[in-house]
């Protein structure tokens, strides 16, 4: 089965930008595009536009609005296979289910437009924390020109090679489809002295110090992806600082920021990590959040 690139739409400018981004990505990768809108029957006081209150009339109105949104995509990409699903149900659950069947789920970074739908706030957090496939968040101002030559796919790498394998896979596959460079970023800080075991101290001595050790760790994580994608240019970037600060320092040259996400469970439910949270709030480019572990 060929997984589609799936876009969640709600009529907002952010979701329309996400739809356009998803269509371009589907065309580049020769994959079908699936457009999903989740809705529930609305009472008149919740509707931003005057529509009938009965379920059939609301369903027809929503279908027409979604079809209108998709029309621009089909005009720009006439050869693209597009399916549209308007699903009545809980928004977060619908989008998480859509992500499970997708190569990538693409959402706007904010929502709540003329078709009452998902909000990135609580619903977006739920989707990001629960999705088992990559989720890309796109802002309203995103344009095709942001994918111009010279702009990189930036990906964060941390820990051992397997810890970032899925994020690196996504970054290299995306760069290969776009003819872009991958910049792999590893941030490091001076840890507490007592965090070192005799074994780790020996490894640091053999590597020649902290920064050379971090560079060797990054090179080891990137090596299999260089071999798998020999045509993709790679820049390895090691810098002292917090992961969020270092990634944001190079975000100005990025056409896409890719970060891994390990789900953190708390007493109030799942949440995404601080690095993903920071990129979603401060990076101007689209951000891909890739689950791992």
TrEMBL record:
InterPro entries: Rossmann-like_a/b/a_fold, Universal_stress_UspA, UspA. Residues 1-139, 153-291 form the UspA domain. It comes from the Bacteria. It holds the Pfam family Usp. Belongs to the universal stress protein A family. This is Universal stress protein.
């Amino acid at each position: 089965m060929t997984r589609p690139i799936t876009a969640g739409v709600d009529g907002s400018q952010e979701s329309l930008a996400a739809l356009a981004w998803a269509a371009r990505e589907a065309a580049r990768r020769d994959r079908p595009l699936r457009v999903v809108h989740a809705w529930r029957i609305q009472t008149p006081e919740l509707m931003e536009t005057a529509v009938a209150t009965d379920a059939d009339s609301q369903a027809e109105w929503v279908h027409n609005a979604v079809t209108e949104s998709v029309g621009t995509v089909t005009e720009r990409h006439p050869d693209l296979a597009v399916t549209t699903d308007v699903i009545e149900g809980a928004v977060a659950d619908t989008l998480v289910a859509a992500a499970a069947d997708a190569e990538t789920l693409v959402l706007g970074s904010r929502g709540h437009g003329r078709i009452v739908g998902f909000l990135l706030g609580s619903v977006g957090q739920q989707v990001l924390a629960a999705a088992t496939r990559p989720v890309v968040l796109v802002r309203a101002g995103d344009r095709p020109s942001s994918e111009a030559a010279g702009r990189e796919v930036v990906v964060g790498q941390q820990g051992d090679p397997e810890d970032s394998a899925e994020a690196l896979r996504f970054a290299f596959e995306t760069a290969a489809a776009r003819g872009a460079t991958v910049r792999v970023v590893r941030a490091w800080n001076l840890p507490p002295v007592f965090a070192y075991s005799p074994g780790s101290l020996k490894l640091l001595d053999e590597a020649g110090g902290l920064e050379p050790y971090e560079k060797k760790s990054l090179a080891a994580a990137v090596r299999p992806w260089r071999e798998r994608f020999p045509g993709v240019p790679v820049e390895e970037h090691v810098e002292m600082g917090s992961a969020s600060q270092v990634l944001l320092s190079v975000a100005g040259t990025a056409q896409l920021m890719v970060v891994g996400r390990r789900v953190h469970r708390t007493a109030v439910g799942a949440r995404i990590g601080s690095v993903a949270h920071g990129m979603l709030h401060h990076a101007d480019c689209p951000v891909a959040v890739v689950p791992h572990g």
